[in-house]
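Hey team,

Filing this mostly as a record. A colleague (T.K.) asked me to run one chain through the structure pipeline before their review meeting, and I want the input and output archived in the tracker in case anyone asks later how it was produced. No errors, nothing strange. Just documentation.

Input sequence:
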Amino acid sequence: MESYLTHQHYDLVTPDGRITQIGALFDRKKRLATVKIDEISPAFIGYEIDAKLITFNLKSVLAQLGLNAVCKEFHFERKFDAAYVKVELQGIGALGVAMLELLEVGSYIGKLFAADDRRRVRDPDYLMRMFGRSDRKGRPLLSLGGFEGSGALILEKIEGRTVAFIALLEGVMTYDLSVYGFLPTLAQVLKKNMSHARELLHLHQHWEKEVPRIIKPNEILLVRTAPLHIRTVYGHVVHSLLPQGIYHTTADFLQPDTTASGDIYELFGSSEQIIDDIPLEFYTLEPHREHVFFSDRDQLLASLEEPKSLFEAFATAPEPRNLLASVFVVKGTQMKSLKPTDWITRELLKHEFPGLSHPARQAQVVEKYIEHQPAYPFLKAIEDGLITSQGILLSRHFPTPLLKRMLLNDLVQRCLKRIYFQYPSCSYGGYFSHEDRAMLVDLAKFGIPVYWVDDLSGKILQYVLKPEKDAGLFVPLPLVETFRKATFFGMYGSNLQEGHFETQLMQLLEGTLEMRAHMNHPLLSSDTPLALLTGGGPGAMEMGNRVAKSIGILSCANIVDFRAKDKSVVNEQKQNPYIDAKMTYRLDRLVERQAEFYLDIPIFLPGGIGTDFEYTLEEVRRKTGSCPPNPVLLFGEPDYWRRKITSRFQLNRETGTIKGSEWVSNCFYCIQTAQQGLWVLSHFFKGTLRIGKEGPIYDEGFYSFNAQKDAWSLHNS
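Output structure:
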């Protein structure tokens, strides 16, 4: 899989071949030669298509001097990544014959091209959308005579393929006599296979604008078009569409790195007709090198909307499951035809990091760790310009945060449009680390969407930040906008028991939904969806998620890894089955998880130590102003909550340790029925609830309806 991520490789062509045998001149203008081509990529398309579609492409510098090459036969030696080609070299005109005589063993003269019919451009729109677009260096992807293209380029669909008729400029290209002195130097340049030979040859060429473009027998005719730039396709002269009696040399393919050098064409034959244009057909590059925009990949975008196609794609990743595996996908057909061999895989290796006290060693180990990741070759190829099409990264496990530097690189960001993963961690299964969540936030802010192809729910979940918060959840795709707009209720309580509040909770939430029609509050209006967030475990949490699902509001969970551990005194809490959206945490980040609930309306049920901590945190949030003084509902009998809360509140008040913060007590409301809870919420959303710094102080640390003789008049006073 990694073989194509090299600078040298294009899968439709071989490297240049050199002459290993060459015969004497015969017929005064021909020589037979054997050309050997080495280091052919295993991915060369010519290995798998009909041999009739494979041609020998002569170097254009030779064609411009008047040489042509006719391929007689070829054969591959795949064991040695080599090919042998027998070609008949023909000299056209005196200059061509002179160059032909100078060719010798060791001269690099051309390569094989695989004209794979599957890669022929058929729809003109494929090319038209390239006009006006550029690569990362600002070079046009396709242009003729200017960045935006030109009227000189005419696209037609002929016999199921797109053909561009490129208008020729007035005049022809000629040589001065000094070119003969350059030929021996050029012969040596060919033996070294040095670049820029064409640029050197251009020093001896002259443009004669007044000379008509008419071919004379036994002479080469060099004609020009406006400067042609192609970076997304191969161009190929369509010989069958040239006027009768006119032929193009076998230097007839334009490479995708063509800039302005593709403006000279070499014609020969015999005709009294003036030639007006050059017909070109086109062949696509490998999908990852096409410079194609993600938004243009209709088939890929459609596949990504179907969960089944993503689960099937991940099913092609090599086993076992703890094997690290990644693949970069740029095309719908590529995703549908993924094979295990398409994935880059790595064994999970444990590294001992020296730590920040040894910065040099730490940096060295980190670099080795990064390079070992299966996503690294793809990200590096994007950085190096070997992958130019925009696409998605499929990774069996969420990428290590140590790749953040590469993932947020501006070059990678231009190509990497989405990340899909199946498992948060190779070592911890479904639970994210603190560093993972930090990277999720960064990716979201840098505009790289992340998706969890979740086996547990059978759904595709997108990571979505909570508005104005540096935390988020993985949300089912159809519910993303609901999540972003929702007012969040939250359920705290025991993981050991549900309590007897399910009916009241359901009535409370249903009543709030009905209340929306009469409210115009930032947290509640006619178009405000509701969501319920719990810890995702059993007991009260399961009851809350079950109620949310039953009444059709978004059911969410912040799930902690409570799996049994040595010396653990925590009950193992399995994820309940009523969750839509979720985030997961490892146990060492329990406090951080709690801080990321960010509830608008918390609801407490009776619970233990965890519930006590959660209650205190909601108090602290209101005291410090990290959240507004919204009401907190306490389901249960007043005596239960007195025993939980009152003595602590009163002691703090008596000792002066909460001086100035006693008002926090007016944020907590003990209720036994949904009607009481709806009364609190109704007055809060109307702005008539006495809550916050200017509100009353309740001696018990919370407000209890049963503790007052006239609760309604108290709150309306």
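Quick notes for T.K.: The first strand starts at residue 17 and ends at 22. The radius of gyration is 36 Å.
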